[in-house]
Design brief:
Length: about 70
């Protein structure tokens, strides 16, 4: 077995991955960028859930320390 790490950001890398998926002898394991808990926190933040509302920097720091 051989493990190959490909940076998926480039157009060529995406094309290579799509080509490799067509081969029956190639198994591609796609892992999420972050763990499940972090992925959920990102989704909640984007949706505006569980955000800390503050009036100033000092207020924010006080809430974070408590």
């Amino acid at each position: 077995m051989v493990t190959v790490h490909i940076n998926e950001k480039s157009k060529q890398a995406k094309a290579l991955i799509e080509m490799l998926k067509t081969f029956s002898f190639v198994e591609i394991e796609e892992k999420p960028r972050y763990n499940e808990e972090t992925e959920q926190a990102i989704k909640e933040a984007k949706a505006g859930k569980n955000l800390i509302q503050t009036k100033s920097h000092e207020d924010l720091m006080e809430k974070l320390r408590s």
